[in-house]
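pipeline/complex-builder :: batch 7 item 3
reading input block
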Amino acid sequence: MGEGEVTAAGAAAVDARDFPHAFHVPGRAWYARSPQDVARDLLGAHLSVGSPKGTVTIRITEVEAYGGSEDPGSHAYRGRTARNATMFGPAGRLYVYFTYGMHWCGNLVTGPDGVASAVLLRAGQVVDGVELARSRRTTSKSDRDLASGPARLATALGIDGQHDGTSVDAADGHRMPDSVVSLRVRDIRSGPFSSGPRTGVSGDGGLATYPWRYWLTGDPTVSRYRTA
DNA sequence: CGGCTGATGGACT
DNA sequence: GTCCATCAGCCGA
């Protein structure tokens, strides 16, 4: 449905040298990049979240890019509020929000301090800590559904309001201390990706309908909720 | 598999 | 009062 296939050339594997300590050193690579560029680069990256019960790691398979005052689909469209404050902060933090009265969703903030932009983490494949993820997602019928959706992903990783504003570390995801969040782009090879309109974003024909949702083509963990 | 709907509470107009 | 960057269960094909 209006989905634009993206060439394999655009899906070249992320080279860690392009993002030295990306989420550790403000002002380096990620600052100069749009949330759309960061979103594409995050496909295939590994994200780990530690907790007292252990660590769960996912391979990111689906994301959406959001901007600020220029983006009608963004929480930051009408300016800074208590809820979206983290979006206006520096890159490398988690922006976590509560929606529909029951779900948490997580983003990675991508812009410089003062500029609102973020990438919504929409789906992933659990690659470590599967047992813990299953215990958190008891309604999941198969492992592919453990993190196939933004709220499912947050639940599987144990992300909730306590993580809003948490800095994302660039360290390896194994044996994480409690409540530490880690993003690992190094050595990650992602395959071809596709793009299409963002989910749940009503469009007026403007920027809101731009194809700023990205996913790894054909990946079974990509969320099934795609209609707007 | 695809479509439909109730749940449920906080943020914002 | 209205709107959600959603999900699970149920239904029919």
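note: Residues 78, 81-83, 97-102, 224, 227 of chain A lie near DNA strand B (CB under 10 Å from a C1').
queue -> next item
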